[in-house]
Amino acid sequence: MPTAIHSAPIDQRIEWLMELSRTHSALFCDPENSLARQRYLAEHPTRIIALKCMDGRIHLPYATKTPLGIVHPFRNLGGIFDLGWPYMGDLLESQVMEAIHQGRRVLIIITYHFSKGDKSRGCAGFNCDKDAAMVHANEIREQVEAIFGHGHKTVYPLVCGFETDEDALILHSSEGESLDLSTLKPDELDSLPVKLEGFFTDMPAQVRHDLLPLVEGNLRHIDEMRQLQRDLDIEHSEWVICVGRGFDFLHVPNVALIIGPYSPDLSDPIIKAAGIIRANMAQGRIPDDGFLLLSSAPYDEVGPDQARAELKARFMAEFAANVIGETQPALAEKMLIRTATLHWSTRRLELL
Known about the structure:
Mean pLDDT: 90
Pfam family, one: CsoSCA_cat
Number of strands: 11
Low-confidence stretches: none
Protein name: Carboxysome Shell Carbonic Anhydrase catalytic domain-containing protein
Number of domains: 2
InterPro entries: CsoSCA_cat
């Protein structure tokens, strides 16, 4: 991403964002990528679900060299979830049961993230407190076990750290041990199947087989990252608040604050996000000519499903705008609103 985009006029920034979504959809629909997904799923049928932070650095397909569309993401401010939230619990259960009805197992990757080089580059949702983020991830693992069972024969919850300086995964076993992939060497690829078998003694063989490509891909990715001079994007410069679902294209650091529609109290994360935008403007990290409020809801089929998505997207835009207007009236004057639906089969963002 060109760093100049953060300082561009708001209309130019919005067009850049829309182009990013169009490019993502084109890549997703590309015949080569479509066939790669189908071939991959034939060889690795386990459904992979990831619970993760809205931070654009946490891009699992990129960091594991996995085809787009294999990992099913749930993204929220701070990576904070509670499976007791009615909508969150219903969505997760629906995805799990769909896979089970297809005869597939499910791997739920529960992520937390941190920077080994600078604590301040950690997760803002936990005030850059790695230990607090890990505690929360383990609480979600326990909730998954309470719903789907402690035996892990069908649904396996995997707590996974993401070290953002090198995009390295840290795998945590149910026995409390950890495997930091940044400590392994590329020439250890051949020994990974045996290593994973010994590390995840309670993981079904099929799930281990389907986790292996992600681990292998991450090892290769880490090696590539070490050859690069990376801009670690220390400074917050977000200028978009996203509310809803369908923002997979936004794996770009320090652009957007993504609020999933999962919590019964959406006003709290919206207020926090608005505060970050206001601070970014006040400290000169972004222009004060405007910011974008983008709402989105996905749909699978035209007809009632699409019409319902449009209603949800419009509701979320109006709700978020009202919250910002009531709590940050001066900031609200600089708010530009775009409402969209996302056609799930093509990942196409459609402005209303």
